[in-house]
Amino acid sequence: MKITLLTIFFLSLNFTLHAQYSKDVIIEPVIKTDTTSIGQKIVYPSFLNNEVTILKVTIPPGKSTGWHKHLFPVFAYVLKGTLTVAIEDHKTLKLSEGSSFAEVFNTYHNGSNNEKENLVLIAFYMGEKGKPLSVFKDTTSPQLHRIK
Question: Domain containing 97 — which CATH number?
């Protein structure tokens, strides 16, 4: 029921926005999906204190996020560069500049920049207030996503 209501709301909003904006405003879909980048069904958890966090993440050449997982939906857009994502089942994904994707959840993964320039992502976390955005597999990994 909750997903149906959200879908109706966003469809209505989409039609309303198109109707209200000038014909000179360009609206381009970035992503529309019901699965993650490895085919997991997107499920919205039921939190008491929902919170959306949007981060600009810059990964220098030769660096990575460290092995981590998310316990809720995360969506990202590759603003600059190419992201290489290793998944714990040994699958690898490559996402080029301009790509958008739903990140895997409850699955450890590591995002790397194997290029010569900075990699820049915009990430949208659909989390819970006061909870970490990422859970790291190894406590020696950088804690990039623990934002308060």
Answer: 2.60.120.10
